[in-house]
Amino acid sequence: MFDMLILILDSTVRLSTPLLLACLAGLYSERSGVFDIGLEGKMLGAAFAAGAVAALAGSAWAGLAAGIAASIALALLHGFASITHRGNQIVSGVAINFLAIGLTALLGQAWFQQGGQTPRLPQEARFTDITWPFADSLRDVPVIGGLYSELFSGHNLLVYVAFLSVPLTWWVLYRTRFGLRLRAVGENPAAVDTAGISVTWLRYRAVICTGILCGVAGAYLSTAQSAGFIKDMTAGRGFIALAALIFAKWRPVPAMFACLLFGFLDALAIRLQGQPLPVIGQVPVQVFQALPYILTVVLLAGFIGRAVPPKAGGVAYVKERT
Amino acid sequence: MTPAIELKKIDKSFGAVHANKAIDLTVAKGSIHGIVGENGAGKSTLMSILYGFYQADEGEILVDGKRVDIPDSKTAIAHGIGMVHQHFMLVENFTVLENVVLGAEGGGLLGRGVAKARAELKRLADDYDLRVDPDALIEDLPVGLQQRVEILKALFRGADILILDEPTGVLTPAEADHLFRILRVLRDEGKTVLLITHKLREIMAVTDTVSIMRRGEMVATRKTAETSMTELAELMVGRRVLLRVDKAPREPGRTVMSVRDLTVRDSRGVDVVKNVSFDLREGEIVGIAGVSGNGQSQLIETLAGIRHAVAGRIEVNGTAVDPTRRDIDPSRIRALSVAHVPEDRHRMGLVTRFFEYENAILGYHRDPAYGKGAFLDIKAIRDAARGEIEKYDIRPPNCLLKTANFSGGNQQKIVLAREIERDPAVLLVGQPTRGVDIGAIEFIHRRLVELRDAGKAILLISVELDEIRSLADRVLVMFDGALVGERPPETDEGELGLMMAGVNREAAE
Amino acid sequence: MTRGALPRWADYGLMPALNLAAAFLASGLVVLFIGENPVEAVKILVWGSLGWNEGIGFTLFYATNFIFTGLAVAVAFHAGLFNIGGEGQAYLGGLGVALACLALDRYVPWWVTLPFAVLGAAAAGAAWAFVPAILQAKRGSHVVITTIMFNFIAASLMVYLLVNVMAKAGSMQPETRTFEPGGRLPFLQDVIPGADFGTAPLNLSLIVALMCCMAVWALIWRTKLGYEIRTFGANPVAAVYAGISPVRITVVTMMISGGLAGMMAINEIMGSQHRLLIEFVSGYGFVGIAVALMGRAHPVGIILASILFGMLYQGGAELAFEKPAITRDMIVVIQGLVILFAGALEHMFRPGLVRLLAAFRPTAAQAA
Amino acid sequence: EDIKPAVAYDLGGKFDKSFNEAAYTGAEQFKKESGIDYQDFEIQNDSQREQALRRFARNGMSPVVAIGFSYENALAKVAAEFPDTKFAIVDAVVDAPNVRSVVFKEHEGSYLVGTLAALASSSGKVGFVGGMDIPLIRKFACGYKQGALAAKEGAEVFENMTGTTGAAWNDPVKGGELAKSQFDRGADVIYHAAGGTGIGVLQAAADAGKLGIGVDSNQNGLHPGSVLTSMLKRVDVAVATAFGDAKDDKWTSGVYVLGLKEGGVDWALDDNNKALVTEEMKAAVEKAKSDIISGKVEVHDYMADQNCPF
Ligand SMILES: Nc1ncnc2c1ncn2[C@@H]1O[C@H](COP(=O)(O)OP(=O)(O)OP(=O)(O)O)[C@@H](O)[C@H]1O
Ligand SMILES: Nc1ncnc2c1ncn2[C@@H]1O[C@H](COP(=O)(O)OP(=O)(O)OP(=O)(O)O)[C@@H](O)[C@H]1O
Ligand SMILES: [Mg+2]
Ligand SMILES: [Mg+2]
């Protein structure tokens, strides 16, 4: 029983990681007042770039760098449209999702002739699992042994990066000048402007942060959790991350728990699938497949109250109506 | 000696609107310089240009005799210019301290810089007697204190030229006097103050010099000592205006609204209105005086059906209304012929994105006069709106204009027209002239008195003691959610002021 | 955001034209990049979608879907609600249509079935929007999350139903039996004398869609409910002041929105496929978001945007046929570019244009 | 005499790592051998099925091969409109004089790999990961179960489906997780019928040092030494044959049911996996194969009664 729990939690961690990275990514952008439903697209673009470059250069790190670069490029496009040209942020996000889906498949086919798939990565070109010291020797110690060796040890670098980004993001947001201004510009850009700070530049920096984290998320999908890119491999995770962000009311630590929750529900569903339930007996597989989403709604309605987005979110900063 | 500021031929247009026309202005160092003008005259725009918030299309700016260009507020701050904006530039869910340091954090990490700021804030608070809890959230502060924060922001950045755009619009007399004392101190320290206001009394009280703007032009500058309110009023509006309301005494009729033991609790669970009881009779204006934030807003909102009470009874025209019931809402109250002019037109009274005529039916849109069944009769609505524009001299006279493009004064008239024209038995009015220019004030006051003479019952809430004293037939003073006494309007300001501050000589009653 | 000093003709004519031109220019570069002739590509795309009857037929057929999903997003938008649940609501709408058709098709002519199908579609879609709506209204659960979740839940539900309950026996396919004529909408060319759209499945739903456009226009700008919806969307505080119940407006608006999304299924299921099948929504719900916003949430704008996307779908298919080098992924890229330039970057040329016009007619500013 | 062949793929697209890709391979192979070029089209939505087939027919293409059971209705319609065009459909039966319907006995092939899985498993627990819970996939799963149970009394078979949207066929990450969870539950061989998702399953097997089983085309090469075998579904052959027959005037319409006997399905043995397949395993599988062909063993077809007795 306990082992099973550990294993579910273990898989929870793996499943939450890309959500967490994307969710924190979205946090930077949306806290600065730039809504972003293009997380999915940025992740996909990054996953492709990472997979492709890792394959060519034979280095996971090169892949990661490429993924981040690609994601930042898309983020800047979003900025160009919605910050510089005050375009509709939702439309811009939708456009980026389309571009990412199309371009990844297109370029993938053009470069590798494997139908938008990138060549399978050899182990050395992936982020492989890191086993912590004594993980194996401790394995048999009751409780903590399992926790330590299964849950904490034995994940790839990017998983740790993801979870470390949580305190980091918290620190940036609440302990640095940049964070203070970031939070301010999302609430009242005019206040930031009259305080002598450039709203535009500030928001650009925010979307760049978004780009970086989405880049890591993408790289995780294609170079850590799997060994190569397959078209559409983000499979809607960007939208789940967005949901998690709202769930967490745009705050870093709750964001982590929201993502862990989604991951856990998913892991649970995977684990329960195809097994008869106590009392109820055999249940159609679709029930389990819908379970995470149903539970999310229930929890949301039950415990998480009203979520108030950053006040200036979604609207471009216009001071002169000319 | 060289003037602190010289503006030469400043010109600014927003698209079609020519907000500032070749404006010249000279402000002497160490003086308090007033600027008056009607709504939309271009005062805020001019100041915002000086502060680098907007860019002038033409003209030049001299600070301390040196020609400078001010592309952004950063530069303005660097030149020692600070501004308190008409619509505050504060981050609502930030603390006072966070708002003050924003943009002047002193280092990439908040830690030390903020600690320093805290100390500095304390010093300023002591020196200028500008006390406010540095860790309070802005949204929890009354507007009066929010404005202090704005002033502190400016001083914290070491401004020696301080611009205040309609600072007293939101202050009680006491608060205003306090503010003026501070301004004088600042002046005596050699700082320069630019004060924008609609209230000539204040101009006369504190300024050394005053400039008058009309329709985007600078029409005159006077030594305050050598001018009079009437002259200023004429210069502003371009015609004679009479500054005091004359109203004949009138015997009130039967009671139309009676309130008993009304208690209202806010979202935080605090009682903000404490068993309030009073009667409102035909043909009388009852004024509720009080420092803002003492429950007047919640009281009037409860009477209007926007909030629910936890206890109490209300009777309107003989119909009993249980204000604690959830199914009571504004439309029900309106149905009892109670009209409501809310305190904050931007937040509550209007949908600024709508056309004027759409706002003219807000709250009355289900009235069959505006369309049968489910549909709206646009023509009927526009005609009604045109009628009101005509009757209330709303400018520009165009019901197809977006409401945001009317000045505050005219926006206020739109609301008044809407509520009064329904010919209600009871009129609840909050801050009818906040941020509104003399021309409009005169008009609004006359309208209210006419209404009272026509036998309507009016409940007036205002932080403007003058307004209350000149309009009301009876004055109720509210403090900390409770009515602390009734006085005739002749009562002198000092006494009312004390009661508003909670010092009540006849605590007995 | 106010429109600024552009005369109407420039704002509604020139600007969109410029944006589209830019979009196709960018697409041209992509086409060039894979070594095809961009000019020819654009020619094929435009000709393929507007140049011949069948092409027009398909273009309008797709446009019909987009009109429904676009209107759905737009209506919610006027109340300040962001409904990304169109995908799921349309999927459920399919269920409503199918039930009506399966029940009646054997016994009555299509015109008897149609009202029931419309009702079924709208009801099912509205029902699927109801839960997110009520949760938003009463519990403040953010409608964006809940509608996303309900898209996934809808998918599970429909797969279950189609595989285990509604599938026709002995078939590989998770889909219902094919409807009899009583469950099929006539093609437009069969009802409009002289019209010929070749084999395009363009059907009566287009008329239904256009009627919905008029209905939505009237609802939003001519009814008291619409007034309340817009008030609530523009200033919730003022709405309460005006005696408008947030709960009621939220629920009603979302259900109208869901109903419209659901009606998309009439075109696909009753008009074209004549059977309920999995995954038939295939993204129309999401594109609806772009359609609504590009159409500025106004029915006329939505119709135009829908036609634009219809062109991209149909013309894109032609392009893929004609040019082996141009894959469907390329079409997706082009769609993305159009959304980007004609939607997100719609203001890019404005300042320049304003200056230009001002230079030509100095009075332009005053006129506007 | 020259022909103008064409292929219309299903929504998954020609590179779905599954039967569409197999069809593509077949077409390419024909092109290489005969030097005759062909046209193809990837649909984006259901409305394009008819459009694509009709378009090909109009342009005088023939034979036109439609990949996937979803083309059934569309083809039935279009075939009637173009009686002189030769059509073929894979995975469904369309009864028309000018249509060749090719369906496969996936259950037979799955039975074989099930047998292998059970024999290769040391824990007696094996797994199956499907893309979406649709009849076709259940057909795979059911045959696999029967094979496993036949080979090992009381063998345990875990069965998982990936999702309920199109993403279910392109989600290697989820596939990997499903595989991992089955490994955690003790499985040590996993068979996938999930297109792109399966890539993740095989990867997870390789990473965990366990065994995976490929599907449709020979996937042994993806992770040499970690893919026990692949269940071959010769869609490629079907397509190539259709083209070839038309070319050599040997075209015949009608229904072709391809099982082990016809070589339509099979298991893959090559250098990549011969180390994994012991002699006795090989013997056992070949025996099962001949028994099935001879009819001694009857593999249950899920489609027959829409249910799996195991
Ligand atoms: N941000 C803006 N964008 C466009 N036009 C503006 C803007 N701000 C002001 N205007 C225009 O400039 C004119 C002057 O506005 P301004 O706010 O300076 O008047 P004001 O004197 O401050 O009025 P009030 O006394 O009500 O504050 C207004 O009539 C308005 O039309
Ligand atoms: N962003 C803007 N766009 C267009 N006109 C504006 C804008 N901001 C202000 N104005 C106009 O400037 C003039 C004065 O604006 P302002 O907001 O200062 O009025 P106000 O009287 O100060 O309002 P209030 O008293 O309620 O603050 C009005 O005509 C107003 O419509
Ligand atoms: Mg002003
Ligand atoms: Mg092609």
TrEMBL record, chain A:
Example of a GO MF term: transmembrane transporter activity
GO cellular component: plasma membrane
Source organism superkingdom: Bacteria
InterPro entries: ABC_transp_permease (IPR001851)
Protein's UniProt name: ABC transporter permease
Protein localization: Cell membrane
Keywords for this protein: Cell membrane, Membrane, Transmembrane, Transmembrane helix
Primary site of residence: membrane
Transmembrane segments annotated in the record for this chain: 45-78, 90-112, 157-174, 204-223, 229-248, 255-274, 286-304
UniProt organism field: Stappia albiluteola
Topology in the lipid bilayer: Multi-pass membrane protein
UniProtKB/TrEMBL annotation, chain B:
Primary residence: membrane
Subcellular location as annotated: Cell membrane
Gene Ontology cellular component terms for the protein in this record: plasma membrane
Domain of life: Bacteria
Entry keyword annotation includes Nucleotidyltransferase: no
Membrane topology of this protein: Peripheral membrane protein
Annotated ranges, domain ABC transporter: 5-240, 257-505
Record keywords: ATP-binding, Cell membrane, Membrane, Nucleotide-binding, Repeat, Sugar transport, Translocase, Transport
Pfam families per the UniProt record, alphabetical: ABC_tran
GO molecular function: ATP binding; ATP hydrolysis activity
Cited SMART domains: AAA
Family: Belongs to the ABC transporter superfamily.
Protein's name according to its UniProt entry: ABC transporter ATP-binding protein
Organism, scientific name: Stappia albiluteola
Phylogenetic placement of the source organism: Bacteria, Pseudomonadati, Pseudomonadota, Alphaproteobacteria, Hyphomicrobiales
Automatic annotation (TrEMBL), chain C:
Membrane protein topology class: Multi-pass membrane protein
Location(s), subcellular: Cell membrane
Annotated GO MF terms: transmembrane transporter activity
Highest taxon in the source lineage: Bacteria
GO CC annotation: plasma membrane
Keywords: Cell membrane, Membrane, Transmembrane, Transmembrane helix
Principal subcellular localization: membrane
Stretches that traverse the bilayer: 12-35, 55-78, 90-108, 114-135, 142-163, 202-221, 276-294, 300-321, 330-349
Protein name: ABC transporter permease
Organism lineage string: Bacteria, Pseudomonadati, Pseudomonadota, Alphaproteobacteria, Hyphomicrobiales
